[in-house]
Design goal:
four-stranded mixed sheet, 4 helices, globular, alpha+beta
């Protein structure tokens, strides 16, 4: 196993065991739920967005597999402090990464630590685990509050 792959696994395991921004955001003005019926992952995302559209605070609660929990944890770190448009652009890049051809080298230059999920491309069933938090965040940010479902 390559050192890079070991590092990726280490980051995912760390964020699963000690998720960052786990909990409900005080004063949240955006929220949504997400559910992956195939594996039972559930998530609740809360956000505090200012009048200019900047994500001031972001948190999540729920239960899921290691990939789902780590993805939610890393997502909150990646988008906190960004504008809604920047967060949605990052989601598009993340989704592009995890759904890209696993035989090609992905471009991860804009993804930072989110690049650890490049290995998910080799396991199509895990893509839904990795993207659940992101779909839920998108629903929270658009104000619809609809439940994100990975089906």
């Amino acid at each position: 196993m390559s050192e890079l792959r070991e590092l990726y696994q280490s980051v995912i395991l760390d964020h699963n065991k000690k998720p960052r921004n786990f909990g409900v955001v005080d004063g949240a003005n955006r929220s949504a739920d997400g559910h992956n019926p195939l594996c039972g992952d559930v998530i609740h995302v809360t956000a505090l967005v200012d009048d200019a559209g900047k994500i001031e605070d972001l948190g999540f609660e729920g239960q899921g597999c290691a990939i789902s929990t780590a993805s939610a944890s890393l997502m909150t770190q990646a988008v906190k402090g960004r504008s809604i448009d920047e967060a949605l652009e990052l989601f598009a890049g993340f989704r592009g990464l995890v759904t890209s051809d696993p035989t090609l080298e992905p471009d991860t230059t804009q993804l930072g630590k989110l690049a650890v999920f490049s290995g998910v491309r080799q396991f199509p069933m895990r893509v839904k685990c990795a993207t659940l938090a992101w779909h839920t965040l998108a629903n929270a940010l658009d104000g619809s509050g609809e439940t994100a479902v990975t089906e």
